[in-house]
Amino acid sequence: MPTRSIFIGDVHGCARELERLLDAVQWSSSDRVYFVGDLVARGPKSSGVLRIFRRIQAEGVLGNHEDRLLEARDARRAGRAGPHLSPSHEHLMTRLSDEDWALLGSLPLSLDLPEHDVRIVHAGVVPGVPLAKQQRRDLLKMRALEPDGTATSSWRERSWAADYAGPPHVVFGHNALSGVQLHPHATGLDSACVYGGALTALVLPAGTSVPPPEARRALLVSVQAAERYVDLRSQRPGQPASE
């Protein structure tokens, strides 16, 4: 029987920090580990992160960085021009193994965990819209809402999660500028590890729901990044953030 569910924020290739976080939460084989996407790219050891993922038999959802790599790979195989790739992504196109690509291709857009009344997505959901009618790009890239209630990938001081009323409780990532977010019905776990911040986990005992924000703080575990791998300062409030 699983003893705990461990939800981990955006890793972005920071394998060293991921190993330290697993040590900090005292991971054991009876735990279930879930990632909120963006396992790879930007950081130094994406393949190492995927090896850890397989070793601990984790689950996770697709992030926009995995999605971009998969789109580029499909386009190149078909002889089409794919999405623009950064040097970090271009490097991974030739470094990921067949096993790595298979893992990325198996990641779903969302995971539901009825035991905890939790839904995991990478970026967010538009409040009031059923999951089946959510736009794929919003699940992967949204950060906030425009005044008319539509999703935007641009950073705003007010997260989409502030207006989300549940159920289920949504656990997400993708928003390094805002850091850890504790809303009544949503928890954001991107604490900017690859930018020199921290890697954060939410640890839930088996069979429990996510508690209110103040009690939830005691369930968070973070480890500091070993270094700043990417500069976050280029992401300015009010502008489309880097994807």
Report the sheet with the most strands, covering strand number, pairing sense and barrel closure.
Answer: 5 strands, mixed
Strand content: 15-25%
Radius of gyration: 17 Å
User: Unreliable segments (pLDDT under 50, ≥5 consecutive)?
Assistant: 235-243
Helix count from the secondary structure assignment: 7
- Average pLDDT metric: 94
So, the CATH homologous superfamily of the domain at 4-109 and 173-234?
Metallo-dependent phosphatases
Order of helices and strands: EHEHEHHHEEHEEEEEEHE
Tell me which CATH architecture of the domain at 4-109 and 173-234 applies here: 4-Layer Sandwich
> According to CATH, what is the topology of the domain at 4-109 and 173-234?
Purple Acid Phosphatase, chain A, domain 2
Span between termini: 38 Å
Query: What class would the helix/strand composition place it in?
Result: alpha/beta
Looking at the structure, what is the overall shape? Answer: globular
Oligomer: single chain
